[in-house]
# Entry
Amino acid sequence: MSAGGLHPSQPFPDAARETLADAQMRRNLRHAAGTIREKRLRAVAEVANWEDIRTQGASIKDTVLGNLAEHLLELEASVKRRGGQVHWARDAGEAQRLVADLVAAQGVSEVIKVKSISTDEIELNAALEARGIHATETDLAELIVQLAEDRPSHILVPAIHKNRAEIRELFRHKLGADLLTDDPAVLAEAARVYLREKFLTTKVAISGANFAIADTGTVCIVESEGNGRMCLTLPDVLISVMGIEKVLPSWADIAPFMQLLPRSSTAERMNPYTSFWSGITPGDGPQHFHLILLDNGRTDVLADKVGRETLRCIRCSACLNVCPVYERAGGHAYGSVYPGPIGAILTPQLLQLEDENANSLPWASSLCGACYDACPVKINIPEILIYLRGQITPHKTPNAESIAMKTAAWIFNEPHRFEGAIKLAHTGQGPLVQHGAIRALPGMLGGWTSSRNLPPFPKQSFRELWRRENEGEQ
Amino acid sequence: MQIDLFITCLNDALFPQTGLAMARLLRRLGHTVRFNEAQTCCGQMHFNTGYQAEALPLIRKFVQDFRDAEVIVAPSGSCVAFVRDLYPKAAEWAGDEVLLAQVQELGTRTFELSEFLVKVLGVEDVGASYPHRVTYHPTCHAARLLRVGDAPLKLLQNVRGLSLVELPASDQCCGFGGTFSVKNPETSTAMLADKVANVMSTRAEVCTAGDNSCLMHIGGGLSRLQSGTGVVHLAEILASVEGEG
Ligand code: SF4
# Structure
């Protein structure tokens, strides 16, 4: 299922308070993130000119974004020339209708799916269900999440928050599989038996796309399990939903991404399965191919000079795996199919900074910068976070924080006000200081002192001490 | 060299001993230091929290206050990173070309203490003595934005009597992040818990860093747990001479 969409149901701090309480999930996440972090560093260190490839990847993406309409029109023409059909979807609703109509036209009530975040973004599975069409996820982790009636918590490893024992129970219960152990091979085999039957009997497959090449009309999917390849070759009809930013000008442009993506995402030198298809080939593979070009807020992101960089993202998930906030709070706290650092900048932008809950996401970061270091296409996530904070704040109604901030700015604008304020703080803190430390602060600062002490203001500020020590010298 | 101290608002108000130590240290190395009392705050807190309109006057004021400085040195990686990295962005986003040129130039004269000592002055042994077991936390902004690298470690390795113990998972953020720790206190606490556990596992007497904001956070956690490990700013260790500390 992996319905999820973009709209968080609550602000990040509230959602995180709930997810942080799940100790099992935190252990699972810490283990998984720690392992993949190490592996990625090793995989990246093997490539001597990694920095150059990053720069190249970023610059290809920027070229595309600088002229997106033209590349998309070229892609449309090339796909059509190769016997495929192209549809444009302005928003999630349009995309859902397009897919559902195409499936319904085949007279079927079942489809198989290749793991795709863009279809999760538009909540496709739920929309299909509403039209009496059942979608089966074929990626192992997506299948786990679907069977558990859960939501994915990671863009690459959707079931990262679950451990083997939990999965064994799930398969026993939902697939009726008689599993003697929770050995990964045994679990995978149970899923394989179940899925094989689906691959062989289902007429329509739905996928996303990692890349699409404008001049040849070629669409590309990169995956690890081979289930994607089955979906892309066995059914009669293939429908691919692709975010409009995924287009690349020509074949040569894909080369750097084939190095950047696998190493950044799964820490592999090369991913096991890479599928390319250009339109249709009579007598081989699906005989009907539909490419749906999804906007869903992307042109608004593109229009913003600073935010635009976000659309370089190739969804490798490296930023999630290095993010200390993601590692603690988990993917569900972000309330969107895009969690972690990329989610914190992409989700609110796709929603035009109009969703109050999504607008809390740019603050869900300590700005430690690990994501920027890891991002294979050099998206300066911390900078965009700060930029978005600055876009959102002025539209908020005045509150305790904004009053405090404005007062502080007024104080900082004059050194004598600043000096006076420090003196006042020293005098005023009296009742708060116990045994040389502040253990509880009132109001919005209370959260801070729930777990840490604060040093009290000293008797004299630096400037006072400096003046005394250096009197006569200056 | 004539050095202008950039003390930062947090250090001025809460940690005056750090600024004094830095001044002492730089004088001991033969430089003259100056403190322009007009300075207050670089505007980082406002800018990073989303109050960019409030930050801009503070940025302009900073440019004014330090316009005659030959070099500007601060005991704070994050404030220096803000001046060097984000002042240009602030100017760009505000569409102010004049300011942009000013801050780009200013950035070339502004340094964090450890990088100034090692990379600018070429000094790795500052003649300090500090007979304690110490662990070092590389702060995110110094490590990732300023790329100070092993400059602080080199300085610490040359301190007499100091035994330096490695901090496990040292590159992990302590969870402070300025107003992040106020707005997301639970997530911040979860990050802090790991940092504090790692510090305690070193059995160091002192955890040091180049930024009192991070140390205030880590120290706050250590103190709440009555861990017995204290926090001391790098400048204070480097300023210590025999018979002190
Ligand atoms: S933002 Fe960068 S690191 Fe994160 S998923 Fe996208 S490409 Fe990967």
Remarks:
- Chain B touches chain A through 69 residues (CB under 8 Å).
- The two ends of chain B are 27 Å apart (CA to CA).
- The mean pLDDT of chain B is 96.
- The pocket of iron/sulfur cluster is lined by residues A 264, 313-319, 342, 374-377, 379 (CB under 6 Å).
